[in-house]
């Protein structure tokens, strides 16, 4: 009987200790070690934006209103076939039972590009109006915005956008921003070439699709 | 809707503190008090305000909730309680708190009077009350053709009015009847607020952010009040009666502001916008029960 009592006391002590440790783990949450995954910016892609309504959305249409010319620009690593990565958090080892959790404890890694964006040039391949002809550098006629999920956000210059893009951590191995033309296109067609310069001397370029311009009503 | 920020104003806190200290002090000397009374009443508040819809700038007073007097209910109904003490038959101090449907004590009126004799006195009063301005986004909807407001919600804002006045007080009393008149004048102002609009061109990339920072816009006001009490019967030491009160507030109000406008990028340019005074009249009618002892 005495042995049984001692055994129960030891077990009770063990269970209480386990409970305390479980709470410690629970309250400390998942210990994400935030793995940093470097990647290379080696591809540039451009998609059309439909910006006639309240906020811009990606579109497959090649028609845009003359005052709503806008594009989404993505710089990514072409070697990352599946850009979505998750890492399991490392739950601290405990003595006895494994702690259980009601929530997912995945941790997102932080993607850091090996290059920074240092400049952009946009060249129009068609005349925009009588003063801005084909082949002209129209970078100054564009503004940018990094977050297309918050429509109540003013545009920014490329300089301030790049400062922000180069400094913020990314949960995806890509940099994305939108560009918006300030002046209406007085032409039936529009197309632009984008040249992005990176800190390691790499120059990425791409052209937009040929846009059919719809005159603003 | 309770707007706790209404109480954060420095002026409001000072005046409330002074009123509370005054009442605590006077109650502490209760042996000198000759009369105390409490009114429980139902009140109706009605506002008339001129509208000048021709301005190219948003004039918030065009959208103040002021449908004029329309029956007994008016624009704002409220219930209230008034507590009054008299000190040696010379000094009166009164606190009135009114509550709308949310039962938040937001409609305040403090007053005190000193009587030189049985009839003639001089007093000071302070008021604070909230007021709705509704659908002021219609200004931008109607005037900014080709731009859409990215906030499609109906807009309503509760503004808070404050006023401090002095003037002569008159009272006429008999054993069952009491009639008081206050003819106060002073300065009213507005608790400042900010409001913003974010607009985008339809079928275009152009965006514009407009931010309004209102000024206190102090202005003169005239605030006459008349109150009647009729004693009906007595239970123990407490006399129970009925009361009625009417007051008006006359002023020429403005809500001036600093307007900051950013186009395309966040680089606002500012200008101060002032408006001509709107003729503004507020009527208050209260009826209820009077308990005095």
Top keywords for this entry?
heterodimer, A: 217 residues, alpha+beta, Immunoglobulin-like, 2 domains, 5-stranded antiparallel sheet, 3-stranded mixed sheet, 17% helix, 33% strand, elongated, B: 293 residues, mainly beta, 15 strands
Q: Your description of this structure?
A:
The complex is a heterodimer of chains A (217) and B (293). Chain A folds into two domains: 2-32 and 90-107, no CATH class; 39-84 and 110-214, Sandwich (Immunoglobulin-like), CATH 2.60.40.10. In chain A, 17% of the residues lie in helices and 33% in strands. Chain A contains two helices and 15 strands. Chain A has helices at residues 2-28, 158-167; strands at 36-39, 43-50, 57-59, 63-65, 70-76, 87-88, 106-107, 110-113, 117-124, 142-145, 174-181, 189-190, 192-198, 203-207, 211-214. Chain A is elongated, with a radius of gyration of 27 Å. The model of chain A has no long low-confidence stretch (mean pLDDT 84). By secondary structure, chain B is mainly beta. Chain B has two helices and 15 strands. In chain B, the strands form two sheets. In chain B, strands 1-2-3-4-5-7-8-11-12-15 form a ten-stranded antiparallel barrel. A five-stranded antiparallel β-sheet of chain B has the order 6-9-10-13-14, with no helix packed on it. The longest helix of chain B has 19 residues, at 10-28. Chain B is elongated, with a radius of gyration of 22 Å. Chain B starts with 9 loop residues before the first helix and ends with a strand.
């Amino acid at each position: 009987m005495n042995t049984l009592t001692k055994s129960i006391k030891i077990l009770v002590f063990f269970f209480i200790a386990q409970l305390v440790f479980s709470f410690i783990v629970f309250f400390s949450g998942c210990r994400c070690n935030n793995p940093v995954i470097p990647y290379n910016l080696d591809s540039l892609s451009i998609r059309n934006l439909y910006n006639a309504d309240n906020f811009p959305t990606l579109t497959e249409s090649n028609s845009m209103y003359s005052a709503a010319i806008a594009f989404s620009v993505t710089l990514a690593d072409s070697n990352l076939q599946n850009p979505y990565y998750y890492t399991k958090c490392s739950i601290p080892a405990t003595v006895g039972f494994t702690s259980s959790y009601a929530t997912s404890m995945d941790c997102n890694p932080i993607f850091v590009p090996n290059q920074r964006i240092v400049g952009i040039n946009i060249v129009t391949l068609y005349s925009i109006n009588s003063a801005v002809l084909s082949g002209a550098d129209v970078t100054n006629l564009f503004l940018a915005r990094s977050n297309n999920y918050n429509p109540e956000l003013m545009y920014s210059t490329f300089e301030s956008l790049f400062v922000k893009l180069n400094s913020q951590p990314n949960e995806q191995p890509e940099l994305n921003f939108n560009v918006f033309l300030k002046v209406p296109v007085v032409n039936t067609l529009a197309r632009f070439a984008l040249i992005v310069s990176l800190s390691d001397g790499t120059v990425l370029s791409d052209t937009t699709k040929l846009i059919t311009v719809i005159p603003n009503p | 809707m309770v707007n706790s920020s209404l109480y954060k104003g420095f002026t409001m806190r000072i005046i409330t503190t002074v009123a509370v200290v005054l009442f605590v002090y006077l109650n502490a000397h209760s042996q000198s008090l000759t009369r105390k009374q409490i009114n429980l009443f139902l009140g109706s508040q009605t506002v008339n305000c001129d509208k000048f819809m021709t301005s190219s700038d948003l004039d918030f007073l065009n959208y103040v909730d002021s449908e004029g007097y329309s029956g007994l209910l008016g624009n704002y109904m409220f219930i209230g309680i008034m507590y009054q003490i008299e000190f040696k038959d010379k000094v009166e101090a009164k606190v009135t708190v009114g509550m709308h449907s949310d039962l938040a004590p937001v409609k305040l009126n403090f007053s005190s009077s000193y009587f030189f004799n049985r009839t003639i006195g001089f007093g000071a009063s302070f008021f604070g009350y909230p007021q709705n301005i509704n659908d002021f986004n219609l200004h931008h909807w109607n005037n900014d053709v080709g731009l859409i407001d990215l906030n499609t919600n109906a807009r309503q804002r509760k503004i808070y009015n404050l006023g401090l006045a002095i003037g002569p007080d008159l009272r006429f009393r008999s054993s069952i009847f009491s009639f008081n008149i206050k003819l106060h004048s002073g300065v009213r102002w507005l608790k400042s607020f900010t409001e913003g609009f974010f607009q985008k061109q339809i079928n275009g990339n152009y965006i514009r952010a407009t931010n309004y920072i209102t000024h206190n816009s102090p202005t003169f006001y005239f605030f006459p009040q008349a109150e009647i009490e009729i004693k009906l019967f007595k239970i123990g030491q407490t006399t129970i009666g009925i009361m009625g009160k009417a007051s008006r507030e006359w002023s020429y109000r403005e809500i001036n502001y600093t307007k900051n406008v950013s186009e395309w990028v966040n680089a606002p340019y500012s200008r101060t916008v002032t408006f001509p005074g709107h003729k503004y009249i507020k009527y208050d009618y209260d009826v209820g029960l009077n308990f005095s002892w």
